[in-house]
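Late entry, written up from scratch paper. The run itself happened at the end of the previous shift, but nothing got recorded in the book at the time, so transcribing now.
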Amino acid sequence: MNAAVIAIQAMVSGVNLAVPQLSGSGLHPSATQLVWIVDSYLLVFAGLLIPAGALGDRLGRKPVLIGGLVLFAAGCLGCALSPNVTMLIVGRAVAGLGAALVMPATLALSLAVTPPGERGKAVGAWSGATGLGGMVGNLLAGTTLQFFSWPVFFTLFVPAAAVLAGLAGRWVPPTERHSAPSDVPGTMLLVATLTTLLFGLIEGRELGWTSASVLTAFAATVVFGVLFVRHSLRSDHPLIDLRLLARPAIGSGALGVAAAFLGMFSLFFLNAQYLHYAKGFSAVEAGLAVLPQGLCMKLVSPRAARLAGRWGTHRVVATGMALIVTGLALLSLATSATPYRLYALDLLIMATGMGLATPPLSGGIVASLPGARSGLGSALNSTAREIGSAIGIAVVATVVTTQFLAHLPSTVARGTHSTAEAMTAASHLTPIQHASVVRGFTEAMAAGYRTVAVLVALAAVTVLVWRRHGARTETALPARRHRPTA
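Output as recorded:
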């Protein structure tokens, strides 16, 4: 199960390392199309996770897992063979659909075969696999892109998914099926809400934030979101019972996971560009440079449950979120002159924060639901993560590209629409002019990291207040119920 998680998360992060090569490829994608290439996978992944989790509860998690791996392989093959940007985005979306089917089943099946006393460790190992998958994706993409072209990167996932599907067929035990009607209107409204939100965030830079298309997209987000809430509250069998989010462990857990991965995938999106453009790293070196982060997260995550039992969940989550914000703030100080060892320390600070915060938050979501709905609990957790990842990429890409292109010299800015195009144009300048362009990029990157740090900090405060208030309410209620009468 953890190997499957690593594979689909590697696809999330690895494509970010391919952005510079994709930008200069024969497909000639614009800056906006590059973000859609990255986010189309995440959009479908996030939008269909909850329906996929419910489908696994209804049909059985084993067949849904295997079917998801087959779809994931088909989408990756379509990406590798894409003759144009449109087909590449479609292939990414198909792979995202497969990932949506795989992700909830992995955690639910892991918990199904784990003794109750060991489930905290299982959740920690699963959370660590999500972080390690990001690092493996960077390493795999870096190595592949150094010696081959971007289609080879996508092709590698086809046999990997096939092998995982075969192993799942051999080793995964069948699980119980629980009848539950599907909620097609709820699914459509949720996907529409996420699609219009990301459209506004991604297209706003190119079309203008006050353009009719962008304003219409944000207005549609509100309308679809309200309709989704109304439908969920009135339906007898909603896609997700929104009343569940009123439970502090579920609501604050989902918000905390989303915020943590918003910060993490903002880093993934910018890391490759920083190491390549500002530090002059090759693709392989860029992939290796972030490997310590994945290993650190994999080391810390399984121990988070034990630390939570010793120090209390609230303290562990608070420490983890504080370290994520600190890591983002320190990364905003990085320039072309920053030594790698100092940059790596910032990555380790973020990885430690992720490893501490996400397992207790994820475990709280799953533990708050009955075993028959563990697939839904896993899907809620995964949806929060992928929504946070998609929004993080959209926000940081918009901030950095806008800031960078606005301050470029006219000789470089003319005809460029993306960071990659601008840096390619700057390579023909004098060393002093090129250094000025690189400095402009790192300043724009700093603005992006600081923006994300503020968003994560605000979400973290909300999560901690919510959890503390919920803990007080839960401990107060039994005391009133059992108070002796006169």
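The CA atoms of residues 193 and 221 lie 5 Å apart.
(Scratch paper discarded after transcription.)
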